[in-house]
């Protein structure tokens, strides 16, 4: 096969691929397009989201708790299934006397579940009684994140 024939075949293959992609492009764009207006959630639908904090920075906590409030406000408390998983150095912020204890109590009152990593609790010498009322210990914060994502929860990074 001559170089000219090889080049012609390569060009024909590239053109065929371009035609196929061009033909599919309008339907792909339509499917990927974001809705122009917020969609309503049906009465039976609960949106599920999981947030995580692994550090003790109060600014990071303020951002995450603010995002949780925004999610609840946007979805409606009756349509939001929100969980906050805390592990690593962030576990200290779940103490009853932490800088965000009041904000955690407010989140719990809005129906947010707060999962406290027992591995981190052991590492930082914390007992269940040291945590804000309503925080629920889980064996592993990382495993909790994995399981919730497999169950369909959206992971929201703050």
Describe this structure in words.
The protein is an alpha/beta fold. The protein has two domains: 1-38; 47-156, DsrEFH-like (Hypothetical Protein Ychn, Chain: A), CATH 3.40.1260.10. Helix content is 46%, strand content 16%. The chain is built from five helices and five strands; from the N terminus they run H-E-H-E-H-E-H-E-H-E. It has helices spanning 3-32, 58-75, 101-109, 118-123, 141-150; strands at residues 47-53, 80-86, 113-117, 136-138, 154-156. It has a five-stranded parallel beta sheet with strand order 4-3-2-1-5, sandwiched between helices. Helix 2 (58-75) links the parallel strand 1 and strand 2. It starts with a helix and ends with a strand. Residues 14-38 have low confidence and may be disordered.
Short recap of the structure:
The protein has 158 residues and is of the alpha/beta class. It has 5 helices and 5 strands.
């Amino acid at each position: 096969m001559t170089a000219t024939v090889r080049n012609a075949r390569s060009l024909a293959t590239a053109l065929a691929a371009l035609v196929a992609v061009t033909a599919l492009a309008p339907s792909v764009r339509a499917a990927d397009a974001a809705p122009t207006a917020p969609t309503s959630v049906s009465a039976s639908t609960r949106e599920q989201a999981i947030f995580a904090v692994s550090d003790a920075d109060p600014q990071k906590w303020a951002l995450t708790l603010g995002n949780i409030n925004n999610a609840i406000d946007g979805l409606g408390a009756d349509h939001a299934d929100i969980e906050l998983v805390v592990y690593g150095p962030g576990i200290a912020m779940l103490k009853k006397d932490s800088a965000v204890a009041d904000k955690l109590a407010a989140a719990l009152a809005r129906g947010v579940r707060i999962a406290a990593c027992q591995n981190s609790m052991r590492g930082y010498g914390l007992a269940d009684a040291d945590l804000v009322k309503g925080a629920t210990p889980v064996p592993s914060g990382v495993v909790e994140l994995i399981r919730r994502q497999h169950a369909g929860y959206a992971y929201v990074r703050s």
